[in-house]
């Protein structure tokens, strides 16, 4: 009896672990496709909590029933069937190769908008399997009918909550950070297989085989070789990082969450336009003029550490939340260790600014790879004020912003207003080619440039026909 009780508690704990881990994996795996904005996360959470509650209700009303001659759907069979069906849906929900096919299909049929995409994803791959998983606790409770209700309820909720706690902490902080997201998916399917083993009897060999088959399928879809075939070199809790090498190896591109983040090319003309613009105007002049003292340069958003490549004069501080970027850059882009005049801090931009008082001559904000992947806390007025506080007197801030050049959407207008509320006056340079007569709504690189000047303390005046002092102002 004690052995049976421990087995059931183990099933409850593992079920709690799996549900929370799948939820977090879904949020993480969708970042390259729909971003990580609050509304996207909210939809996924809702797609887990609501069916989970309905699963509790449905599981509580289940009764064994006869399916045919000599075939009875018992509680044990119901539990294993639920696990097997749920695992099939979860395979589609958190396997990266299948997600690529799914979102490519949505694009092909004209589905647009992150909210709509994640809603379709959640309805197809999360709602029903979570509903089935939610039935686990009330179904298992049937085995404790001779226990004191309050006592067994407390224990069941304890093990379920502990499982959820471990699922959230272990899957993200431990597994994703150490073995990668894809291998974490494999671990989850191994745990589902373990649940089936705990529930199975000798007569359930077929279900055990099916569970093992699902585990093998998960391994095939999510192993290191499968990721390598998709050009993935890093797949941690922050991002999916790929490396693309052109024919002949002349151009190496770093792709983070399905957006090109950095490029190293033998021909300087093949580098990103905004990188060339910033280097040409703010870094190269310091290298060609010995009268200019070495600058302290802060780069928020390390990318591939290509900004300032080859510069051994100025001091660079790179900040990025993804600790794996440095090793990736040194291996595939720079092909050598970072120079001694350059340091890397693996932490969030706001965390770095809050924890450090150092001021810089040049601050480059390169945190936005595309409009979908913009972290919401890095586009606020408070963030830009924090950036400005770290600027030396007469220093310069250059911000690479992905937006529509003609302000065709609310975001492009609002981000412009937000920047100008902190940095004024500020110049705006469109450095990526576009055709204003044909395609007006494309997102391009807009580099905002602010230079701290003493005269900026004076309020600006407007010239009118009645009052025009331009000849005194020049």
Number of helices: 18
Whole-number average pLDDT? 91
Sheet of most strands: 7 strands, mixed
CATH fold-level assignment of the largest domain: Growth Hormone, Chain: A
Helicity level, as a percent range? 40-55%
Strands, count: 13
Overall CATH architecture of the largest domain = Up-down Bundle
**Largest beta sheet: what is the strand line-up?**
9-8-7-10-11-13-12
- How many structural domains are formed by the residues? 2
Q: Span between N and C termini?
A: 93 Å
Shape: elongated
Poorly predicted segments? none
- Summing up helix and strand content along with how strands pair, one would put the structural category as alpha/beta
Strand content: 15-25%
> Quick one: CATH class of the largest domain?
Mainly Alpha
Task: Write a compact overview of the structure shown.
With 474 residues, the chain is an alpha/beta fold. The protein has helices spanning 2-29, 31-34, 38-60, 75-94, 96-108, 114-125, 127-134, 136-141, 149-178, 181-199, 205-222, 224-229, 273-287, 325-333, 349-355, 381-389, 410-422, 470-473, and strands at residues 65-68, 71-73, 232-235, 240-245, 251-256, 259-265, 296-300, 315-320, 342-346, 360-365, 391-403, 427-430, 444-451. It folds into two domains: 2-230, Growth Hormone, Chain: A, CATH 1.20.1250; 259-464, Rossmann fold (3-Layer(aba) Sandwich).
